[in-house]
């Protein structure tokens, strides 16, 4: 009886041992791993979206630090895959909005730049970065961003108005800088030319209306 029992016991375990020796299908394992990763991504995308919605609520209440934390969490949770690039751009731009209201303009610009890199035609990021640049009195950079928006979509009215306003200010500043530079050069020139009984008044700059370039005319009249 003992022999029979031993044989039956061994037989009852035979299938288990046989299964243990079988090798797993590599293709099946790969498919299962991919499914697991995809399932995890979907969950993280949902959690990131929930964090963003929570941040939106805080933002509307003016609780910018709390909103910033939520958007940062969303950015951390969101997968870095290319297909989620726009999601990450949105979270970065939302962070930038909080930083703008907190007066942290340099950081705001950094987050806007990240958003633009992730989504090159994301006009909201360009407009917000332009606002931050303007707060820092970097008007030429702000104007450049506004022009980028108009290249993407020329119908955005806020960009049209900002382009006109900034262009006028930038042009005025550039002309003022030119005038100040010419005055400094004139003073330096008079110091040198005075040794020869001349002054910069002996030289006249005449602009060619066709090309915009300048010609210098010399007058023989010496300084008394």
From TrEMBL:
In its keyword annotation, does this UniProt entry include Cell membrane?
no
Output the Gene3D superfamilies linked to this UniProt entry. Tetratricopeptide repeat domain
The name of this protein is Mitochondrial Protein Translocase (MPT) Family
- Residue ranges of the TPR repeats are 48-81, 123-156
> In which domain of life is the source organism classified?
Eukaryota
Q: Which UniProt keywords apply?
A: TPR repeat
Q: What Pfam family is a match for this entry?
A: TPR_1
Which PROSITE patterns would you find in this protein's record? TPR, TPR_REGION
**Organism encoding this protein:** Achlya hypogyna
Region described as Disordered: 1-26
């Amino acid at each position: 009886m003992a022999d029979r029992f031993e044989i039956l016991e061994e037989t009852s375990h035979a299938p288990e041992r046989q299964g243990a020796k079988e090798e797993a299908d590599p293709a099946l394992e790969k498919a299962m791993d991919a499914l697991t990763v995809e399932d995890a991504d979907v969950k993280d995308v949902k959690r990131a979206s929930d964090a963003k919605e929570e941040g939106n609520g805080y933002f509307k209440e003016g609780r910018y630090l709390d909103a910033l934390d939520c958007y940062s969490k969303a950015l951390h949770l969101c997968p870095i895959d290319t297909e989620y690039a726009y999601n990450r751009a949105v979270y970065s731009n939302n962070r930038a909005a909080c930083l703008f209201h907190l007066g942290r303009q340099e950081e705001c610009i950094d987050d806007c730049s990240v958003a633009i890199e992730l989504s090159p035609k994301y006009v909201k990021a360009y407009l917000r970065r332009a606002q931050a640049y303007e707060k820092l009195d970097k008007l030429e950079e702000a104007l450049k961003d506004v022009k980028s928006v108009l290249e993407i979509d020329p119908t955005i009215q806020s960009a049209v108005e900002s382009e006109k306003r900034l262009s006028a200010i930038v042009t005025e500043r550039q002309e003022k800088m030119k005038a100040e530079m010419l005055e400094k050069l004139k003073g330096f020139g008079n110091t040198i030319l005075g040794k020869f009984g001349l002054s910069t008044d002996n030289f006249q700059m005449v602009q060619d209306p066709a090309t915009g370039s300048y010609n210098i005319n010399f007058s023989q009249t010496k300084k008394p």
